[in-house]
Amino acid sequence: MKLYPGWKGNLVVFGGFIVLILGNFFWQVQNTNKRFREHSLEHSKVLGAVVELNIRNSLMSRSGMETIVGSYLKNSAGFIAYLDQFESFSEQELKAFADKSGLAGIKIFRNAGKEQVTGPKGWLSHTFCRENNALKFLSEEHLYIYTLPYSEGSSSSGQTCILVGMSSQETEKIQKTISVETLLNVLNQMKGIEYVRFKKAGESREELPSQGTGLIYINQKPISETRINIGDKELIVGLEADYFSGRMQTLKKETLVFVAFLVILGFFSSWWLYRNQQHRLEQTRKFEREMARQLEQASLGRAALTITHEMRNPLNAISIGLQRLQMESRALDRDHRDLVTSMREAVTRSNSVITNLQHYAKSFELSRKDIVVANLIESLIVLYRPQCLENRIEFKLQLDKTVILNGDGNYLGQAFENIIKNAVEAQPEGGFIKIQLVKNKKEFVICFENPCTALNPDEAEMTLKPYFTTKTYGTGLGLAISRKIIELHSGKVTTDFKNGMFSVSVTFLLNHEAGNAKEYL
């Protein structure tokens, strides 16, 4: 009978589940990574827009302040030129005018630069009238200066100019406040932002494309870095990616745990199905063996009936004839009398073979009652003691007399007698038979042990099978009949051969009703 391998199908099903879960995991990873990139790119674009707007505002504010400063300095220079036409300024007057007007200093060049008046004295001594009507920023002096040419009188030789200056510290403070560097410092201190900066000269990261977002690690810390082009510069935005990295790790752990659970469950369920299938297969085999055994017994029963019917009567007739010849043996010589005796023994053996075959083939009907097992064994030993004394065989007994078995005493006696008989016949030159009866919580065991030289370890199990024998005569049915009787009492028989010692162990459940002990069936 061939059973469908359900455990293999179960493995295939769980394997399919694992493949689906892994596919879902990779899909989630790709989807999460895509959404993370989009989210990081959007945030980075917002920051880029803020930076770009700040740059424009900074440029516009710088241009506006320079326009205001230039206009103010131009007007101041024009007013000074106007006043200087009526009365020339002295250094003290220029200093006072500068202090009142909030100017850093005033310098007037007269007579084509040959004469100059400065207030306060010594202010910008190295500066001359070179750029006209222009605002200039001196970064080292932190000054805005404006040069205004004008004509003194109507003579061209009186060409002169006025240079006025104003401190740039306040405007620089304003410019610094709204500068890109300040904005970047503020952004770098915000939560969730690792860094915002412009690409440095010579800096290159091949793993990230321009206008792209990717996950990088700096000092083993995950960072989402995005590059954005702003004009001719490249803005690099680094956002913290701890949540994304933690989410990915959690997703991996959850998937790994679930896959491991499915693997364990799949293997366990497949193992259970496999064991269940093997159990059913073994039961089927046992059933087939039992059917074959019953068929064999039925065949043996029919053969035994035929043999009994066809051979018993001739054997009885031969036995009666031989018995009559023995009674009338006075007319026979000694050789003929010995021949008659041998023929009667052969007829007896043949009759014994037929009887044993009939016993093995027939169905036993048990008549149960409580039996003290130790007393039953001792009664059998009494029968065999004379023969054992003659053959120098010693009995060694260790029997628990509290053990009671509900069974058929006649059949059990026949089973134990066959085992003892085999032990006696296996020691023609003397020895011993050791019989132990011990019990535990659930069962009791009767162990028959004796020396044996006619067996080898491979033949120990064969002794329980029908027709196996190591003797020159015999049917090989003794232990097979004993096994059949013991199994009818829900018992179990095992044999073993070690170190020249052959043992037969009979196990029964303790305090049981025969037929309810399923484990011995």
Please outline the helices and strands.
Layout: H1 6-86, H2 91-101, E1 105-110, E2 115-119, E3 134-138, E4 143-151, E5 159-167, H3 169-177, H4 180-188, E6 193-198, E7 213-218, E8 221-230, E9 233-240, H5 242-327, H6 334-361, E10 369-372, H7 373-390, E11 393-399, E12 404-407, H8 409-425, E13 431-439, E14 443-451, H9 478-488, E15 492-498, E16 501-509
Parallel strand pairs: 11-13
Antiparallel strand pairs: 1-2, 1-5, 3-4, 4-5, 6-9, 7-8, 8-9, 10-12, 13-14, 14-16, 15-16
Helix pairs in contact: 1-4, 1-5, 5-6, 7-8, 8-9
Name its key features.
521 residues; 9 helices; alpha+beta; 52% helix; single chain; 5-stranded antiparallel β-sheet
